[in-house]
């Protein structure tokens, strides 16, 4: 089965690199999506054959929302709020009633970074364009197989 670029990127980042997840701007920029809604809709209405759940949660280490892919069984979805296949695991976001409210929240937080082309948050807390390492990892993820 061939998986979408966003799924290969997230799988590479979480399972092959052993990282927690990717910020929303990073995902948008890495797969050249037109906006947050495009990525979230691909996750929401994606193929049910995906081996891992996709979770939107808050990463305290970088103080940002990230998309993650825990190596948990699909029943993970039974324990969290979900908009179709996008699982929400964050108290603040779980209070949002609709998918549209989630988009408004995420756009208010991240649209300025996406429009500026600053997709990657560095260790100093600044948003920048992709680093050479980011570009290399994105290319490796694009070639990776699940």
What strand order characterises the main sheet?
A: 1-3-2-5-4
The count of DSSP E runs of length 2 or more, i.e. the number of strands, is: 7
- Multimerization state: single chain
Return the domain count: 1
The low-confidence runs, each spanning 5 or more residues with pLDDT under 50, are none
Sheet of most strands: 5 strands, mixed
The gross shape turns out to be globular
How many helix segments? 6
Beta-strand residue percentage: 15-25%
Q: Helix content range of the residues, please?
A: 40-55%
Order of helices and strands: HEHHEEEEHHEEH
End-to-end C-alpha gap: 9 Å
Tell me about this structure:
The protein is of the alpha+beta class and 146 residues long. The N and C termini lie close together (9 Å). Helix 1 crosses helix 6 (132-143) and helix 2 (24-30) crosses helix 5. It is globular, with a radius of gyration of 14 Å. Strands 1-3-2-5-4 form a 5-stranded mixed beta sheet. The protein has a two-stranded antiparallel sheet with strand order 6-7. 42% of the residues lie in helices and 16% in strands. The model has no long low-confidence stretch (mean pLDDT 89).
Task: Produce a short descriptive summary.
The protein is of the alpha+beta class. The protein has 6 helices and 7 strands.
